[in-house]
Amino acid sequence: MNIGTTEAAARWDRFADEYARNHGEMGDLHKEALLNPVLFSLIGDVSRKKLLDAGCGEGYLSRLLARQGALVTGVDYSPRMLEHAKSRTPNELVIGYHHGNLEELDFLEDDQFQLVVSNMVIQDLADYEKAFQEVYRVLEKDGYFIFSILHPCFVTPNSGWVKTEEGSKLYWKTDRYFYEGAYEQRIGKEEKMILFHRTLTSYINALVQTGFLIEEVVEPKPSEEVLMKYPSFGEDLRCADFLVFKVKK
Question: How far is CA 54 from each of CA 104, 121, 223, rounded to the nearest angstrom?
Fold first, then answer.
């Protein structure tokens, strides 16, 4: 598909209301059960740190980090998402929200943040290499970039469960792994979102070429506590949905 970030952003803007309805103060169920525990274990203490939530969506992560004492700036390319973020942010939480594309953060100064967090956003950008460069630019020296993505080895164009006629899940199918580019994925009731697939090699090489030092990589899986609360997450022990990086400038 010959399509770029502008169209991806437009579709997220149309999907923003449904997306916001499915997100509470801990995000959606997958964020609560799988991503949040990993993100916060990697983030550590954020008290008084200047932090960028790069692709903040409806703002749940910005709010959680602000409540922990971080000085948060949130950026998103969907105006409607930012409306939800602002309306859900109580007055006592001072979060600066800005409309912007992570591929071009020219309204932010160099060496401005001690930490940049991006939760499930990079696969929504056509020019992920430019986004990495922009994050690198706005980070202080020795600052950290922590980001989560769909696992590129398992979430590919045409991936999905293969089931029996009765609907039982047999195994997770992947295909077209070495295809790099845009594809459509239905999310929610109606909207087909634009995702941009690239290989694990491409992600790692782009980080290294940008100048980042990779410190940790985590494939989130459900804990025993999560499995007791949400038994359906047992299927996430069969295949990794997400990949989380912690890299340093």
Answer: 12, 8, 27
Burial track 167-183 (b if 16+ CB lie within 10 A, e otherwise):
eeeeebebeeeeeeebb
Closest by Cα among 20, 31, 8, 58 to 192: 8
Q: Write the CA distances from 123 to 63, 133, 184, integer angstroms.
A: 23, 15, 12
198-244 pLDDT, tens digit per residue, is 999 999 999 999 999 999 999 999 999 999 999 999 999 999 999 99
User: Which pair of tokens denotes residue 70?
Assistant: 């971080």
Question: Do 140 and 226 contact (CB within 8 A), yes or no?
Answer: no
**Helix residue ranges, H only, the chain:** 5-21, 29-30, 36-43, 60-67, 79-88, 128-138, 200-210, 224-229
Q: What is the pLDDT of residues 124-179, one digit of tens each?
A: 999 999 999 999 999 999 999 999 999 999 999 989 999 999 999 999 999 999 99
What is the DSSP-derived secondary structure letter of residue 32? Answer: I
For helices 60-67 and 36-43, the axis angle rounded to 10 degrees is 40
Angle at CA of residue 152, ends 149 and 155, nearest 5°: 95
Look at residue 136 and give its three-state secondary structure: helix
pTM more than 0.90: yes
